[in-house]
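Bumping with the actual sequence this time:
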Amino acid sequence: MWVCALWEARTPALLRRRLLPASGCRPPAAASYSASAEGSRVRALIYGHHGHPTKVVELKNLELAAVGGSDVHVKMLAAPINPSDINMIQGNYGLLPQLPAVGGNEGVGQVVAVGSNVTGVKPGDWVIPATAGLGTWRTEAVFSEEALIGVPSNIPLQSAATLGVNPCTAYRMLKDFEQLQPGDSVIQNASNSGVGQAVIQIAAALGLRTINVVRDRPDLQKLTDRLKNLGAEQVITEEELRTHEMKNVFKDMPQPRLALNCVGGKSSTELLRHLAPGGTMVTYGGMAKQPVIASVSQLIFKDLKLRGFWLSQWKKDHSPDQFKELILTLCDLIHRGQLTAPACSEVPLQDYQCALETSMQPFLSSKQILTM
């Protein structure tokens, strides 16, 4: 089960409002729309029960609520399909929304109109969700101001759409568990994932060196070149990680004090084997659906530490202003050219079934982003 994305144990009020099927849709009152939305259909990807995403997700018309005093009318621009989104639809994620639900936990939208009490954003601004669970796979929505964070509109659309989950996870794991200094090394698996690509770039910006583990595949050299262009120093396969030749890697760089695990099973055991004494392995996902196994000798004689990370919990433990500060820190890296979006493929909302199917394929090298 993937656990590298987010979910808050609450359902936004908008999801409890009436969801109108595509057939027989009754247009809402004109007061519920701004002039720019007049005559347009508000569409959303909705699932009423759990199952295979391409079978249970449907494109339906959604009634748009009137804008209240503390509300913000947002036109969604782009929203990615993350592994946690798939897990939620399948019903095998740790926390699940009340059904029916609009899919998607991440994305970027543009403010169309604001209520009389809104002071933090204005029409034309770009916004992203402050928490998960808003349901971003839709063309428009009315959200409360507190559910949104403003972001600069001069960053690339794909960067904005994928800003709130993976780069935040990568940054916090690099900063919160070991006091790393420039020249120190970090080892990670699932290095081609959205988090993995963000780790490579943020680590490089911090002066850290990365050892990046990936699964063997037909286009391995192409992937290796792409990750090295992002700043990866070493790219090795899971099989190479288990060989004695790994000791040669550490002739030119220090043993890592931090390991980032999104796989579990044998892969995580190998990460532990290469950690420096006193080091920490942080687990934020479990792609292999196998437990993390650490030997007694590693815990006793190497004093290794096993930790977990979930961005939703980090948000609960920190203030909204601290999350906003994190977002702005990442935006600064984007402006400097030190952080780019993962490889993405933009897919029109109406082609969602193809996007969902593609997002579940093995060795996926491009994140699917729904455009509205």
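The tokens above came from a reply further down the thread. DSSP finds 13 helices and 17 strands in the chain.
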